[in-house]
């Protein structure tokens, strides 16, 4: 009895999840230095004796190649690859070993050159070239070689994945694989389809994003199979035809390249098996499928550059269940679109990483308000709910005009940041990009600059006054300072300002009539300096009072990296959530020892300590 064979890209092996108790599978490897030698060794595995026929396709591009599997099966022939301009040496060796007398070349001379055909003829091999002006006509010409079909497969000619997924099925059922465009069908291909409209079934592979409703409706007796991405479509194909094939013979190949999957499809057809596509990390749809299948023998297709030996050894320790899924932390800005992740990377019970689907308890996220929002999701087979912590950052809603004075435009440097009021009521400095305009003029007068701040829907205006004060004295001879105070709390304004000309501190009296510390925001103060004709200026920022900072709880697995947050969420006196800087008393944590840590932190303008409870659990 022929042993069961499973062809696999070994990078997938680490990611298999199974609820069943599985014995360590027996693993073997088929590979060469490149795709040509790999195809030759697949041929050597499946065709030990002689073969009168072989199918030779391009190893450089997929369009003409991927419809060849049903033709190869009809003549019990392997599929071998060649370079465009010269017959590949590995293919030549196999043709001689098999004693091949007839070769089907799939593709016109622009795909496989006359030089390759001449080389085959020089070996005493009869050649039959099958090809059209493009991939669509080539698939049609291959179909004509199969005779009157009972069933037909229709795939999008821009992708190889659906064709190789259908390849062993189509080969066993004598079903041609025809290529169409997403929104159109070649006229000759459509004529062939209409001439076979009485076929038992015509399968259209993929959803409307792959083959449109317009094309689907033009095909008689059509049935869609497969939807979603290429991996989900591959699984849907397997599940649809599973009762007609042998599920014990599963052939896994990379979803990133057609060559290994196509060569493997002929081997799969010998045992009525399927091609399963995968990648690393393993897609969640493939993971779900493998969790229900028992794999006894793994034949790894590919060399060390594709399949590491460490991954090969890991095949003996397939994961059994999900042991840990980290909570999700995402940052966006107010009014941004946001879609929760459909899948997460989890840790399996053997320590490997796997991709798992997650179902969140929401359909749409409202990002119209800033703040911290927490949602919860469920992962099948996982003991607790997963949290999605979404921070919606505030955006600037008000940036006051900026007024500056200078005695020289040449010496004035435009500020890199401007003070802004954010949508959560807080204030901060934000980077600004200025439109320079008439910057080189230096005569007395007013100069206006417009600036752009990210996510602010207006232009920022800066008015610069160049003053000829005589004697070279600038009009803004005093330091323009900024001071922060807390809403409703007492404060003291500075009693002196620095004279930048004499470098002396001068007494100042501030005009405080515009100050209302019961409201947050930005206040511009003007001061009178003793014995000076010039005014002093200061910007007063009224910060919201912090009312509460809740206890923070974090759960991490022993050995994982964890960095204490630099900012935490606080509730203000007006019930808004804002992010504040925090300094921790003990920022260094031993993550190698399972225990619970109680870490205290300090926040400016908050008179209570902040508490973070970190639970380190064993893995």
Automatic annotation (TrEMBL):
This is Cell wall-binding repeat-containing protein. Coiled coil: none annotated. Keywords: Signal. PANTHER family: GERMINATION-SPECIFIC N-ACETYLMURAMOYL-L-ALANINE AMIDASE, N-ACETYLMURAMOYL-L-ALANINE AMIDASE-RELATED. InterPro entries: Bact_Sporulation_Assoc, Big_4, Cell_wall-bd_2. Pfam families: Big_4 (PF07532), CW_binding_2 (PF04122). The keyword Signal applies. Residues 1-23 form the signal peptide. Residues 326-382, 401-456, 480-531, 552-606 form the Bacterial Ig-like domain. It comes from the Bacteria. It comes from Clostridium mobile.
């Amino acid at each position: 009895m022929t042993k069961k064979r499973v062809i696999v890209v070994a990078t997938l092996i680490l990611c298999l999840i199974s609820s069943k108790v599985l014995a360590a599978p027996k693993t073997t490897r088929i590979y060469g230095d490149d795709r040509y030698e790999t195809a030759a060794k697949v041929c050597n595995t499946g065709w030990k004796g002689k073969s009168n026929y072989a199918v030779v396709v391009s190893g450089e591009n997929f369009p003409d190649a991927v419809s060849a599997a049903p033709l190869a099966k009809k003549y019990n022939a392997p599929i071998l690859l060649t370079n465009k301009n010269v017959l590949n040496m590995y293919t030549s060796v196999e043709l001689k070993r098999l004693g091949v007398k007839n070769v089907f070349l799939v593709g016109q001379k622009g795909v496989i050159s006359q030089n390759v055909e001449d080389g085959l003829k020089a070996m005493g091999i009869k050649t039959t070239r099958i090809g059209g002006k493009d991939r669509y006509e080539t698939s049609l010409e291959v179909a004509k070689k199969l005779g009157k079909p009972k069933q037909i497969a229709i795939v999008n000619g821009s992708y190889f994945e659906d064709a190789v997924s259908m390849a062993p099925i189509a080969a066993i059922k004598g079903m041609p694989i025809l290529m169409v465009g997403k929104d159109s069908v070649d006229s000759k291909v459509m004529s062939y389809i209409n001439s076979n409209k009485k076929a038992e079934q015509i399968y259209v592979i993929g959803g409307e994003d792959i083959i449109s409703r317009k094309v689907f409706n033009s095909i008689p007796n059509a049935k869609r199979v497969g939807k979603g991405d290429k991996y989900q479509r591959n699984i849907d194909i397997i599940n649809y035809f599973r009762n007609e094939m042998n599920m014990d013979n599963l052939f896994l190949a990379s979803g990133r390249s057609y060559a290994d999957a196509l060569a493997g499809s002929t081997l799969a057809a010998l045992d009525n098996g399927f091609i399963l596509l995968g990648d690393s990390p393993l897609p969640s749809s493939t993971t779900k499928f493998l969790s229900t299948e028992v794999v006894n023998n793994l034949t790894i297709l590919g060399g060390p550059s594709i399949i590491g030996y460490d991954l090969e050894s890991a095949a003996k320790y397939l994961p059994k269940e999900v042991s840990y899924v980290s909570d999700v932390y995402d940052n966006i800005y107010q009014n941004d679109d946001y879609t929760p992740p459909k899948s997460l990377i989890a840790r399996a019970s053997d320590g490997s990483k796997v991709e798992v689907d997650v179902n969140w308890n929401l359909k749409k996220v409202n990002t119209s308000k800033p703040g911290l929002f927490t949602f919860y999701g469920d992962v099948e087979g996982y003991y607790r709910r997963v949290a999605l912590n979404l921070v919606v950052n505030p955006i600037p809603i008000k940036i006051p005009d900026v007024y500056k004075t200078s005695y020289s435009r040449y010496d004035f440097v435009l500020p890199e940041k401007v003070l802004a009021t954010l949508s959560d009521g807080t204030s901060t400095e934000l980077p600004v990009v200025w439109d320079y305009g008439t910057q080189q003029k230096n005569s007395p007068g007013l100069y206006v600059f417009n600036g752009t701040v990210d996510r602010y829907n207006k232009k920022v205006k800066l008015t610069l006054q160049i003053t000829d004060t005589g004697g070279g004295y600038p009009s803004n001879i005093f330091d323009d300072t900024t001071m922060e105070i807390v809403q409703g709390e007492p404060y003291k304004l500075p009693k002196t300002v620095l004279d930048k000309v004499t470098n002396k501190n001068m007494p100042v009296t501030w005009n405080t009539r515009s100050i209302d510390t019961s409201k947050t925001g930005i206040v511009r103060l003007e001061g009178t300096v003793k014995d000076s004709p010039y005014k002093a200026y200061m910007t007063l920022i009224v910060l919201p009072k912090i009312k509460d900072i809740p206890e923070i709880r974090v759960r991490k697995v022993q050995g994982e990296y964890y960095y204490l947050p630099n900012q935490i969420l606080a509730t203000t006196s007006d019930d808004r959530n804002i992010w504040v800087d925090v300094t921790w008393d003990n920022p260094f944590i031993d993550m190698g020892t399972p225990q619970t840590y109680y870490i205290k932190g300090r926040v400016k303008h908050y008179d209570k300590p902040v508490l973070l409870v970190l639970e380190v659990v064993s893995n």
